[in-house]
Amino acid sequence: MADAIADTRRLYTKPQNLNDAYGPPSNFLEIDVSNPETVGVGRGRYTTYEVRLKTNLPIFKLKESCVRRRYSDFEWLRAELERESKVVVPPLPGKALFRQLPFRGDDGIFDDSFIEERRQGLEQFLNKVAGHPLAQNERCLHMFLQDESVDKSYTPSKIRQA
Q1: What does the alpha-carbon distance between residue 115 and residue 51 come to, in Å, rounded to a whole number?
Q2: Which of 8, 81, 109, 133 is least surrounded by Cβ atoms within 10 Å, i.e. has the fewest?
Q3: DSSP letter, residue 138
């Protein structure tokens, strides 16, 4: 037993250069929800958000995309992921029913502070969902992030990596 001496030498590691330390990451996925715009009047009024994607993951056909989505599109995406995938889908920011009541002293769901709070919640939701490897295979997520319009009558399926 005395003959067994632990080898404590370090493994040889390649010295890190500036490109390794400060170059682009090997895999990245950035999703920003920004630039909220309220459109329409009266009961037809709603807010859209710009969803900007940057990635080098091979599963996405476009490496950069920018689309506009409204809250109901996020609800559709969440429902599709719950129905089609094996992923535990995080909640969306709330519907804010109280803010939709008439005769309020503020703009309700069109109040700047509420829109900003919702924008942050939608961005967190998308980053959690899109960061999950199983969700990245879902056609509904790709359509939501990269197609100009969401085809809600699509045929659910998995994306195959090229």
Answers
A1: 15
A2: 8
A3: B
Q: CA-CA distance, 44 to 46, in Å (whole number)?
A: 7
DSSP code at position 61: S
Separation between Cα atoms, residue 76 and residue 33, nearest integer Å: 17
- Number of residues that make up the chain: 162
Q: pLDDT digits over 11-57, tens only?
A: 666 777 777 667 666 788 999 999 999 988 877 889 999 999 999 98
Name 33's bridge partners: 51
To which residue do tokens 């459109």 refer? 39
Measured distance CA(20)–CA(22) in Å, rounded:
6
Residue entry with tokens 């990635």: 55
What is the token pair recorded at 58?
A: 């091979």
- Spatial distance between the Cα atoms of 88 and 69, rounded to a whole number of angstroms: 22
CA 36, CA 47: separation in Å to the nearest integer?
A: 6
